Amino acid sequence: MTEEKQELEETQEEKQELELEEIDDPAVLRRELEEAKAKAKEYLDQWKRAAADFANYKRRNEQEREEVIKFANAMLITRILPILDDFERAFQTMPDGLRGLTWIDGIALIERKLHAILEQEGLTTIKAVGEQFDPRVHEAVIQEESAEHEEGQIIAELQKGYKLHDRVLRPALVKVAK
């Protein structure tokens, strides 16, 4: 058994001597250096891609956060729009004898304040009467033959439409000439 052990030790010593000879060989060293450089370049490229992906992720995340903040009140504003419609209808149908009363002026002030607050939040009305019909912002409820208006022109607005930061919150309900 000692002979086997001695042979095994001699084989290991020979391997070590060969490895030492290979280390001294310049061609082997150059090849290993090129392999190490290639690996380093590959790792650097992967790191750059990961850094770019992370930067894109951060930018997308920030944009989405800004969108959420910008439109967070959209549902609440949508629920308030019928109140604006009610104010408008009330003022349109008000008898002339009531228009000069101070409490009516108070209600008109409340309506103007509500409009001002909603405008500060980014709410704008969609122009309708006299404009060309645009299916992105108008909803045609009635089409009427008219010689006075060109085809596709909006004759009347039945319900105001609103945008919130250039996004249609509620399309304008309109009567269109044909």
Structure overview:
The chain has 178 residues and is of the alpha+beta class. It has 2 domains: 2-68; 71-177, Nucleotide Exchange Factor Grpe, Chain A, domain 2, CATH 2.30.22.10. It is 60% helix and 16% strand. The chain has helices spanning 2-24, 26-70, 74-92, 102-120; strands spanning 123-125, 138-144, 154-159, 162-164, 167-170, 172-177. The strands form 2 sheets. A 3-stranded antiparallel β-sheet has the order 1-4-5. A 3-stranded mixed β-sheet has the order 2-6-3, with no helix packed on it. The chain is rod-shaped and about 125 Å long.
CATH homologous superfamily descriptor of the largest domain = Head domain of nucleotide exchange factor GrpE
Q: Which strand order does the major sheet show? A: 1-4-5
Q: What is the chains' assembly state? A: single chain
Largest sheet: 3 strands, antiparallel
Strand-and-helix sequence, N→C? HHHHEEEEEE
Question: What is the radius of gyration?
Answer: 39 Å
User: Total number of helical segments?
Assistant: 4
Distance N to C terminus: 109 Å
Structural class by helix and strand composition: alpha+beta
Taken from the alpha-carbon principal axes, the silhouette is rod-shaped
Text of the CATH class of the largest domain:
Mainly Beta
The number of domains is 2
Q: Quick check: average pLDDT?
A: 87
- Strand portion: 15-25%
Poorly predicted ranges (pLDDT <50, ≥5 residues)? none
- Tell me what the CATH architecture of the largest domain is: Roll
**Helical residues, percent:** 55-70%
Number of E-type strands: 6
Classify the fold: give the CATH topology of the largest domain.
Answer: Nucleotide Exchange Factor Grpe, Chain A, domain 2
